[in-house]
Amino acid sequence: MKYGDYLRHDGPVGFREFNDRLDKNDMGGWLEDLRELSPPGQPTFDKLLSLAVAAYRDAPPSHGHFPLVLYSGGKGSRADANVELGEYLASHGYVVATVPQLGPSDQEIDLGSSPQEISMHADDFDAALIALHDLPEVDFRHLATSGHSAGGEVAVQLALRHPKVRAVIGLDASYGMSGGVRVLKQLLEYAPGRKLRAALLDLRRADGSQGVKLDLSAIDALHWAHLDRVQFAKANHGDFTEWGMVAIRLSVPMPPNPDGPQGKLDTR
To answer: Which residue blocks in the chain are alpha helix, DSSP H?
Structure first.
């Protein structure tokens, strides 16, 4: 497979219009981002599409039962959201699944980050779980959810809905920031003091990095089976996505960080 294959949505014939619109949105989003970061006239986008990846289309599944990770990208993320992480996990024996971000109607295809839209995206993951139950190689006794930015709220909501979720991984998740705290508290399943069977691994920028103001009160008000938190001083929000690996391969500079290079870890 090539990197560009991740930006092409395949689905039933009845979804062809949506597939085409999602393809167009993803391609346009990459072009806009690269236009801001790479010199004019360089074929950076073509290089991106032609990059070789580690995945193989329609590869036969290995024999056995494998843990499942559901991944949700942040608001406006593309179909290639954190694909390097997905490929890495798959190479170590995990089944990794995600769903497109679809808005509330065919007239409003873009998904926002309101509580209602977070729940709508979680509904799509619920539908994906039903389909994944048809795959005999998936071991639902070992189920994890993960998400970046607003996708972290989706990951938490899935854990609140499904007791089978045993681990949640937040990648600079919005539930630890002021705006995301308000969203998390408005989710139907949220209640302070609620006990979960899942453990939480919370990886994020340290307070003040790239101007972030942390508020961990809502996520810490849930009773997790176990909680580990790692805060990265002077990190970028995009450091928790596919951006870093793609930038290295394409020799494209990362967006400037006024806080300077990443510093030491603050582990709690």
So the answer is: 16-37, 44-50, 83-91, 115-132, 151-161, 178-186, 217-220, 243-250
d(CA 59, CA 152): 29
pLDDT at 176: 97
12 part of a folded domain: no
Number of independent structural domains in the chain: 1
State both tokens at 128.
């994906």
Q: The whole model's pTM is what?
A: 0.92
d(CA 203, CA 223): 18
Residue 164 lies in a domain: yes
Q: SS3 helix, strand, coil % of the chain, rounded to 5? A: 40, 20, 40
Residues constituting the chain: 268
What CA–CA distances, in Å, run from 161 to 47, 193, 230? 41, 15, 25
Q: What are phi and psi of 184, to 5 degrees?
A: -60, -45
pLDDT tens for each residue of 141-178 = 999 999 999 999 999 999 999 999 999 999 999 999 98
CA dist., res. 1 & res. 51, Å (int): 9
State the CATH number of the domain containing residue 94.
3.40.50.1820
> CA–CA separation, 107 vs 92, rounded Å?
40
